[in-house]
Amino acid sequence: MTVYEFFSLMGGVGLFLYGMSIMSSGLKSAAGDKMRVILEHATANRFLAVLVGILVTLLVQSSSATDMMVISFVNSGMMTLLQAIGVIMGANIGTTITAQITAFNLGAYAPFILFIGAIMFLFLKKNTIKYIGCIIMGFGMLFFGISVIKEAIVPLSASQEFISFLSTLENPAIAVVFGIIFTALLQSSSSSVVIFQTFAIQGLISYHMAVYLVIGAAIGSVTPNILASLTTNRNGKRTAVLNLLFNVIRAVIMILLINLFPQFLEFIQNLTPGSIGRQVANTHTIFALLAVLIEMPLAGAIVKLSKLIIPMKAAESKKIEDRRIHYMVQTGTSFPSSVALQQARMEISRMGKIATDSLQDAIDAFFNMDDKLAERVLEDEETVDILTDAIQEKLIALKAENYSEKANEDISQMILVVSDIERISDHAENIVEYQQQMRSRKAVITETGLAELKKLADASMESILVSMSIFEHEDYDRLGEADRLEQLVDDLQIEVVNSHIRRLMKASCDPAGGVIFTDMATDLERCSDHAINVAFACANVNKDSFAEA
Known about the structure:
Structural class: mainly alpha
Number of strands: 0
Number of helices: 25
Order of helices and strands: HHHHHHHHHHHHHHHHHHHHHHHHH
Helix content: over 70%
Shape: elongated
């Protein structure tokens, strides 16, 4: 093989991969945010999750891209591992469509397809048309790349060295390993299967050799997801392990099947006799479908195995426990309003403690420049967001019950309380961001300024703790104390900001640090405002008139 022929082959592979990328970009642009919306609404129904995986992979033309989105959703807590495995199974079916498309011999029409796509993309102004042009152009590049690959490998059929190398792949174990490595290097199972398909069409490899290469390609396709999961939390890593387990089990099942029942491969070949390219594509698709049908009932066991491989840590178990509903587990007319309201109060109070502790952690992270505490705050903020949605959904369901007017009013107030607590958690996240800004901007706050902020933070925390206690225990005799503490925080905030302005006037304060100072003072004061709302929520007392009295 000459240097020119080698680079022709590499150029064909590059054009094919770029065509896949262009198609994917056009499909993503045309679909907008639909892929993420679809994935977000994948439910615990495994069949629906599989369909979602197929659909999204068809849209993005990449099972790896789908799997990476799944990893990010599991990493953020938006999707469970059981939902994830369904989508992963669907993605493995969806990715076989590429080989089905390329089994059509459209190389002769590739330049015309490219031309039409380029005209639409370059000269038409409407975005939708441009996106469709991008898809068509990618489609043309894909087939043009395949035709270049076919032409480049023709001389290989006369190369004794290459034929000798391919003869080693007649060993099924070596063929599977080569399929894994080749796909891992290409970072795309669709691309490697199409290349194996092309080798088979050109007579360089047998159908049976291609079958084992396809089996290896399924395992090698997991490589991008494993690499992507390295920067995720442990649940994100488990998602990548799920994908690996699914494909390893799939490979074992398929190897056993074709060795115990050799007539199975004959059946696939007889579906399209005389077309080895279509036979390879059908094998790829049928193997994926069979793997899903066999492994779907085992989904729960595969999830458990992933948790054994990457075991749960105490902190992770706590996070999962924090994010589930503890008290409002049942609602309905069988529960009297007094019981339902008490359950809601206990649930909201538990959420309030998480938000309060998070705010204290954020304050400590700011003053001590503690990055570990800052990370905990960000995780707790996610927890509070999840609880906010879950609790408010339960409270809205309670509103539909036939409760008294007074009970319904209390439920409405509790919905507002949940929002106030969620805002306190948001302010904790803001404070963590100020800590990060202090480091990145190398900002400085004077010792006097830090002492003033610390005094304001302590007063704000005291105000919040008292208000949360009043709500939890319905201890409305302490409303006067809560009101005084909230007024104290208001006065302190004005005092420290005025003091800060005087320092600025004397040029004794770092401007970057000064911006952070005033922003944090505002956040601390607003936390106290939200807390006083919580204290007065169900007290049947007008807060403004109470303050005037």
